[in-house]
């Protein structure tokens, strides 16, 4: 059973933002016309069905000036809370959520369609049922009498049933569709027969052609065997033929070769003659070669003899020279020995001689230097420096004294200057700063007189001191002059002393040098006297060597000659003479043996002549060798000819043995051609038959497939016939007389029962009622009422004859009865301005009736502008419009009282 708890409006009709809470029992919404009361129940209706109550569009529900509107409705069904949220524009989808208090909110439906479906489940009724029964618009309570038939048709959807049955309705068109399909099935049946016949024919044809194919294949196999045999036969004939060809070729090759060889052999006698001639010609080669060799030997010997003669001459000359040198050498040997002795002694004395020369030179130099130094010494004067030294000492002492005096003058001058400065300060202080007339020195008081006196005294004192300073200056200058003179004198005297000292040092050095030279000269003289005898000997040896040097040089020239060398040369000469004699003997022998001329020129000419002849012989030998090789070839050709002749005989024998005939070969080939032609024809025939069989089988398969499909299609026939029957039956059932009448009767008795039960709750004397859903009866001028009332006596009373209160009660009861029959639990009744146009008495009656309705529904929402109805409400809400916006105010809440 549904109960409304709360509705929230946002920009909905005249409401900007309103929240209205409802209670069980009677909720009265009161307010002036246009205050926005109906807007609240409109919002409830819109929340439930997303449809406007008024005849306006959804957009028109949005408050003027706002872009979108939303409504939230909180309902309770079987102790569960649901929140329906609807929106117009604004892009938010409608939702329905279940609210579990203090826990969560679960969205059950999203989107207008889904929400509508869920509302239907919660309410147990659709919009048609609700709007025809529990939702009663302004002054429409009794409308139910006039429209009962339509209401019932709407509720029972009889209208739709009729639509189903119409000739252009869905059942009719479905039947038509099935009929069409059945017609197609008839066509298919015809096609099935055709196909079955065709398949039968094709199968027969396949059988025939397969038989023919079998025969042809057998024939083909036989031909194949015969072709194979024929080919083998031809192959063997061809083998013979090829062999014959090869033998014939070979034979002709051999024959050619034979005739060639015979041709070549004709040359042979001529070649043999030439060979003999040449052999004869070259016979002289050997003796000629020997003679040439002898000539060459002779010429060599002649050259050798000539060379020997020259060598002998040379050796003889050399020997004679060596012998004279040897004699010279022997003569000079004594002189040479003396020369060597002296030369050796000279070498020994050489070092001492060098010392002697150097020492004597040194002695000479020292003596010259000594003479020079002694001369210089005589020139030097003797100087005494002590006098000068004393003079310098005295000048320095005097200078010291004068400098001390200067220092004293300077210190005295400083003292005087200090005093003057002091005095001038005192004087200045007296004149400028001392205003207290105090003595700047002792601090005593000073009179003007004192001041003047002091001033004069200071003046006096300064003058005295200045004069003293002047005197000191003069004295200072005088002493300074003396100091400068003394310094100059000191400088001069010191220079004199320095010069004297330098002179003295030179003299000392000279004396020391002289002494040194004297010592050196004495040493050198001693050394020279020791070296003098050796020097004398050296001179003597040198002189003698000068005399001997020529002998020595002559000796050197012949010194290399020895007795052995002379003997060797003599031996060599002897041997060469023997060799030359031997060669001459040899030459004589050859000339005599070979009969050669003795003259060398003649010999050479003869040699050249023999060489030319040998060259000629060489050429002839080459020619001979060429002819001999040709003859050798001809010999081998001759043996080849013999072989060839044998081979030819063998080939002829083999040809004969082959026994090949060309006409046999041609016949066999012709037979093979015929067989192959036959084979080709059979292959074509077999191919044709196979092709035809394949096509026939494919067709059979295709037709079988089509046949199967048709059979499947035909299986539908029975179903289609059944469906058609069912549809015809349905059309029949949906007939007003059948199902519609049944539904109406069912509803009628249920509603009548409920109506009687509800009316019993109302205070009415009528107990029995009868509903009339007959449409025809409600039309026309003499309108037959849709409800017939029976009084206590059982008399029929027309509704129109009843009092207003009775009619309202019955109308309300009828609505509640219909709702109860069709809804699981009718929990709510909504009435908009139910008392319009009612007088006071009727209003009271209505209030009672409404109150009585609470026995049927839990909650009643009543919209009214009639303040009298406030007292009927358990919960009163007042609506007001402020600034064009509707505002809600709770006026009373009798909840507790209830
Ligand atoms: N879209 C809208 N925006 C704002 N106001 C609207 C809109 N549509 C209608 N109205 C106004 O809202 C007001 C409230 O109408 P509603 O039907 O709720 O009033 P009521 O209180 O039921 O009045 P009555 O007793 O005359 O039926 C009216 O004045 C109406 O003209």
Automatic annotation (TrEMBL):
Cofactor-binding details, from the entry: Binds 1 zinc ion per homodimer.
Coiled coil ranges: 141-264, 305-419, 455-527, 559-740
Molecular function GO terms recorded: ATP binding; ATP hydrolysis activity; zinc ion binding
Keyword line: ATP-binding, Coiled coil, DNA damage, DNA repair, Hydrolase, Metal-binding, Nucleotide-binding, Zinc
Cofactor(s) in the UniProt record: Zn(2+)
Quaternary structure and partners: Homodimer. Forms a heterotetramer composed of two Mre11 subunits and two Rad50 subunits.
Domain note: The two conserved Cys that bind zinc constitute the zinc-hook, which separates the large intramolecular coiled coil regions. The 2 Cys residues coordinate one molecule of zinc with the help of the 2 Cys residues of the zinc-hook of another Rad50 molecule, thereby forming a V-shaped homodimer.
Cited PANTHER family: ABC TRANSPORTER ABCH.3 (PTHR32114:SF2)
Annotated function: Part of the Rad50/Mre11 complex, which is involved in the early steps of DNA double-strand break (DSB) repair. The complex may facilitate opening of the processed DNA ends to aid in the recruitment of HerA and NurA. Rad50 controls the balance between DNA end bridging and DNA resection via ATP-dependent structural rearrangements of the Rad50/Mre11 complex.
Name of the protein in question: DNA double-strand break repair Rad50 ATPase
Gene (name only): rad50
């Amino acid at each position: 059973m549904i109960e409304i708890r709360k509705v929230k409006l946002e920009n909905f009709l005249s409401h900007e933002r309103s929240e209205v809470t409802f209670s069980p029992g009677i909720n009265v919404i009161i307010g002036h016309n246009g205050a926005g009361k109906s807007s609240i129940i409109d919002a409830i209706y819109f929340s439930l069905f997303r449809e406007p109550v008024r005849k306006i569009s959804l957009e028109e529900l949005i408050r003027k000036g706002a872009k979108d509107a939303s409504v939230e409705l909180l309902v309770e069904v079987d102790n569960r809370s649901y929140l329906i949220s609807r929106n117009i524009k604004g892009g938010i989808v409608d939702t329905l959520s279940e609210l579990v208090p203090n826990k969560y909110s679960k969205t059950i439906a999203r989107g207008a369609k889904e929400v509508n479906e869920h509302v239907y489940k919660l309410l147990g009724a659709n919009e048609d049922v609700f709007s025809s029964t529990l939702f009663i618009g302004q002054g429409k309570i009794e409308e139910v009498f006039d429209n009962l038939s339509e209401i019932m048709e709407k509720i029972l959807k009889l209208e739709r049933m009729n639509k189903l049955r119409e000739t252009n309705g869905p059942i009719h068109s479905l039947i038509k569709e099935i009929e069409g399909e059945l017609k197609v099935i008839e066509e298919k049946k015809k096609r099935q027969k055709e196909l079955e016949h065709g398949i039968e024919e094709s199968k027969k044809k396949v059988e025939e052609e397969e038989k023919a194919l079998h025969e042809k294949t057998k024939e083909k196999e036989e031909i194949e065997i015969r072709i194979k045999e024929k080919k083998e036969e031809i192959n063997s004939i061809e083998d013979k033929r090829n062999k014959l060809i090869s033998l014939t070729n070979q034979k002709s090759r051999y024959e050619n070769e034979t005739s060639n060889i015979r041709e070549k052999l004709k040359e042979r006698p001529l070649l043999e003659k030439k060979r003999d001639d040449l052999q004869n010609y070259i016979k002289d080669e050997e003796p000629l070669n020997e003679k040439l060799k002898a000539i060459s030997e002779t010429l060599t010997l002649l050259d050798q003899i000539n060379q020997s003669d020259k060598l002998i001459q040379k050796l003889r000359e050399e020997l004679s020279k060596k012998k004279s040198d040897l004699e010279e050498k022997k003569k000079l040997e004594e002189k040479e020995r003396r020369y060597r002795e002296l030369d050796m002694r000279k070498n020994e004395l050489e070092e001492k001689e060098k010392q002697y020369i150097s020492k004597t030179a040194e002695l000479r130099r020292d003596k010259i230097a000594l003479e020079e130094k002694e001369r210089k010494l005589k020139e030097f004067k003797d100087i005494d420096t002590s006098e000068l030294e004393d003079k310098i000492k005295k000048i320095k002492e005097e200078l010291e004294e004068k400098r001390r005096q200067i220092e004293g003058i300077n210190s005295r001058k400083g003292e005087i200057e200090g005093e003057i400065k002091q005095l001038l300060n005192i004087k200045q202080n007296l004149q400028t700063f001392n205003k207290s007339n105090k003595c700047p020195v002792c601090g005593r008081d000073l009179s003007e007189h004192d001041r003047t006196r002091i001033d004069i005294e200071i003046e006096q004192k300064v003058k005295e001191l200045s004069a003293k300073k002047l005197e000191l200056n003069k004295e200072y200058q005088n002493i300074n002059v003396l100091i400068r003179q003394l310094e100059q004198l000191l400088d001069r005297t010191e220079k004199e002393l320095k010069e004297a000292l330098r002179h003295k040092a030179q003299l000392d050095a000279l004396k020391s040098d002289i002494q040194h030279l004297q010592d050196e000269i004495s040493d050198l003289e001693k050394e020279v006297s020791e070296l003098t005898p050796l020097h004398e000997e050296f001179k003597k040896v040198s002189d003698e060597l000068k005399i001997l040097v020529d002998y020595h040089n002559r000796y050197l020239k012949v010194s290399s000659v020895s007795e052995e060398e002379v003997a060797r040369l003599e031996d060599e000469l002897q041997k060469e003479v023997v060799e030359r004699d031997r060669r001459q003997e040899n030459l004589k022998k050859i000339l005599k043996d070979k009969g050669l001329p003795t003259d060398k020129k003649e010999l050479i000419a003869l040699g050249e002549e023999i060489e030319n002849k040998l060259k000629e012989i060489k050429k002839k030998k080459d020619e001979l060798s060429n002819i001999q090789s040709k003859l050798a070839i001809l010999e081998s050709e001759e043996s080849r000819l013999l072989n060839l002749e044998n081979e030819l005989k063998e080939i002829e024998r083999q040809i004969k043995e082959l026994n090949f005939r060309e006409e046999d070969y041609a016949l066999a080939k012709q037979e093979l051609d015929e067989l192959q032609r036959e084979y080709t024809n059979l292959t074509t025939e077999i191919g044709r038959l196979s092709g035809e069989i394949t096509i026939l089988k494919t067709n059979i398969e295709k037709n079988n497939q089509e046949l199967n499909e048709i059979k499947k299609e035909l299986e539908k026939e029975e179903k289609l016939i059944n469906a058609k029957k069912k549809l015809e039956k349905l059309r029949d059932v949906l007939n007003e007389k059948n199902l519609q009448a049944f539904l109406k009767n069912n509803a009628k008795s249920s509603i009548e029962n409920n109506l009687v039960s509800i009316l019993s709750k109302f205070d009415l004397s009528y107990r029995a009622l009868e509903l009339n859903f007959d449409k025809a009866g409600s039309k026309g001028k003499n309108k037959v009422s849709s409800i017939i009332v029976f009084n206590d006596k059982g008399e029929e009373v027309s509704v129109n004859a009843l009092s207003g209160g009775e009619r309202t009660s019955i109308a309300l009861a009828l609505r509640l009865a219909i709702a109860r029959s069709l809804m699981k639990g009718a929990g709510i009744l909504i009435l908009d301005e139910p008392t319009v146009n009612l007088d006071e008495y009727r209003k009271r009656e209505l209030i009672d009736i409404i109150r009585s309705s609470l026995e049927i529904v839990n909650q009643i929402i009543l919209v009214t502008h009639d303040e009298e109805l406030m007292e009927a409400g358990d919960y009163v809400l007042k609506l007001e419009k402020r600034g064009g916006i509707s505002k809600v105010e709770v006026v009373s809440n009798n909840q507790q009282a209830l």
